[in-house]
Write a structure and sequence with these properties.
Largest sheet: 11 strands, antiparallel
Number of strands: 15
Mean pLDDT: 86
Number of domains: 2
Strand content: 25-35%
CATH architecture of the largest domain: Sandwich
Length: about 290
């Protein structure tokens, strides 16, 4: 088993637990080969090394951004192995979807037992996403947060950074085109879900299913700032999908265009500029689950 771990993820404590991981697997007959990432651009190299030996799986310790880069590297290098998750990032939305806790022994147990779930991946232009692709205001919060603040405050850091940006809200004119309709709207942000949560907001894409061949897109229409507070309360309660200020679309393919070169976000990492194409690639990767 290749173990790719990001020492800077979350509270940075996983590196102190590696001996425990190796012990649990070795007692079950597994040889664990750790690879410490030296930076985000180093992850692909660690994944690529699995091509040159008889690996049977890849374990990833980090957040959704680390998993995203591992998965993209696997597809790019034609590596078809199941992945296991040690959720040691800040939000860990993919792990939360499957109920994978931040518990070393339980995570090892799930991988050793070998129960798998084959999942879809989203694709935005030429990059894949495991959980969300987003654009507009707030969507680059995870990129702008100071790493030490994120590691100290966890999800709270996302909320604080989001509140800080509210005075800067400006509508963005977007055109959404699916197979059978085109919609033009001024929005503050959109999020396309493969899973059902973003940044720990578990009810944002509450109807999304990770293996149904579709993504769920939610966009917040440009509205008065005074209307945003009750809308955010609805979002926290999962009561927002029928709100007049919400656009909700389920699709397998979509194009989104804008006259502005807006940056997108993929699983907490910087994504491509507009225009973008979104699609779902069904049944593409296996994940060890409880």
């Amino acid at each position: 088993m290749r173990l790719i771990y990001n020492p800077g993820s979350g509270d940075r404590s996983f590196k102190n637990r590696i001996d425990e991981v190796i012990d649990d697997f070795q007692r079950e007959g597994y040889q664990v080969v750790p690879y410490k990432t030296l930076g985000v651009d180093d992850i692909e190299y660690g994944v690529k090394l699995t091509k040159y030996d008889n690996y049977t799986s890849i374990a990833v310790a980090g957040g959704d951004g680390t998993i995203n880069r591992v998965v993209n590297a696997m597809i790019k290098n034609d590596i078809n192995l199941p992945i296991g998750i040690f959720p040691w990032g800040t939000a860990n939305d993919l792990a939360a979807y499957f109920g994978i806790p931040r518990d070393i022994k339980k995570c090892c147990k799930y991988m050793i037992k070998g129960k798998r779930r084959t999942i879809d991946l989203g694709k935005i232009n030429d990059k894949y996403f495991i959980n969300v692709a987003a654009g507009g205001l707030l969507t680059d919060v995870s990129q702008k947060i100071d790493t030490n603040l994120k590691n100290t405050l966890g999800k709270l850091a996302y909320y604080l950074k989001g509140i800080e940006q509210i005075p800067n809200f400006k509508p963005i004119p977007l055109q959404f085109t699916t197979r059978n309709k085109t919609l033009n709207a001024d929005v503050y942000l959109f999020i396309a879900f493969n899973g059902c949560s973003a940044g720990g907001f578990n009810l944002l894409g509450k109807n999304a299913v990770i293996d149904d061949g579709k993504f769920d897109l939610i966009a917040i229409k440009a509205c008065n700032i005074i209307d945003l507070l009750p809308l955010f309360i609805k979002i926290l309660r999962g009561e927002h999908l029928q709100d007049d200020n919400i656009i909700y679309i389920r699709a397998d393919k979509m194009k989104i265009n804008s006259k502005y070169k807006i940056e997108t976000d993929i699983d907490g990492e910087a994504g491509p500029l507009f225009p973008i194409s979104l699609e779902i690639v069904p049944n593409i990767i296996d994940v060890f689950v409880p």
